[in-house]
């Protein structure tokens, strides 16, 4: 006779009236309470392992999965913070570059205005000297 073992689910699915008396199936005599208890223990261990690996949370897996979840959340937070910092630094650099370009443009405009005003001062100075010379000549000619 060959001994064949069945799982607890298979045994529980049998009705009390079913018996296996042929030569290939004789398990009823060998089934003991220890077998049932060990099968229940194995199912419990499987359930805890499944819960630890991503199923429902089990008592034994809470600390480890909770710690891993916290570490993963911290890692994600750090990545988001770094990305936010990069974007902020990029905005800051663009703003500073824009301000520098505006200042450079303002310097160029002021230099152009300064040149224009210097030219005007020179022209007015020349005109003043011409008028003064004219008045002097007129005064000398008419009053002497």
TrEMBL record:
<keyword id="KW-0804">Transcription</keyword>
<keyword id="KW-0539">Nucleus</keyword>
<dbReference type="Pfam" id="PF00170">
    <property type="entry name" value="bZIP_1"/>
</dbReference>
<dbReference type="InterPro" id="IPR046347">
    <property type="entry name" value="bZIP_sf"/>
</dbReference>
<dbReference type="GO" id="GO:0005634">
    <property type="term" value="C:nucleus"/>
</dbReference>
<dbReference type="GO" id="GO:0003700">
    <property type="term" value="F:DNA-binding transcription factor activity"/>
</dbReference>
<feature type="compositionally biased region" description="Basic and acidic residues">
    <location>
        <begin position="59"/>
        <end position="88"/>
    </location>
</feature>
<dbReference type="InterPro" id="IPR051027">
    <property type="entry name" value="bZIP_transcription_factors"/>
</dbReference>
<feature type="domain" description="BZIP">
    <location>
        <begin position="75"/>
        <end position="132"/>
    </location>
</feature>
<feature type="region of interest" description="Disordered">
    <location>
        <begin position="36"/>
        <end position="98"/>
    </location>
</feature>
<dbReference type="InterPro" id="IPR002112">
    <property type="entry name" value="Leuzip_Jun"/>
</dbReference>
<protein>
    <recommendedName>
        <fullName>BZIP domain-containing protein</fullName>
    </recommendedName>
</protein>
<keyword id="KW-0805">Transcription regulation</keyword>
<dbReference type="GO" id="GO:0003677">
    <property type="term" value="F:DNA binding"/>
</dbReference>
<keyword id="KW-0238">DNA-binding</keyword>
<dbReference type="InterPro" id="IPR004827">
    <property type="entry name" value="bZIP"/>
</dbReference>
């Amino acid at each position: 006779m060959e001994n064949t073992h069945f799982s607890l689910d298979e045994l529980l699915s049998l009705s009390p009236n079913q018996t296996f008396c042929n030569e290939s199936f004789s398990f009823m005599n060998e089934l003991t309470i220890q077998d049932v208890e060990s099968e229940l223990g194995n199912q419990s261990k499987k359930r805890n392992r499944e819960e630890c690996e991503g199923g429902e949370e089990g008592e034994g897996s809470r600390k480890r999965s909770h710690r891993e979840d916290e570490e993963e959340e911290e890692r994600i937070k750090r990545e988001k913070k770094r990305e936010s910092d990069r974007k902020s630094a990029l905005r800051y650099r663009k703003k500073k570059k824009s301000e520098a370009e505006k200042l450079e443009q303002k310097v160029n405009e002021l230099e152009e205005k300064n040149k224009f005003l210097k030219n005007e001062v020179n022209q007015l100075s020349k005109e003043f000297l011409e008028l003064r010379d004219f008045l002097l000549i007129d005064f000398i000619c008419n009053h002497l």
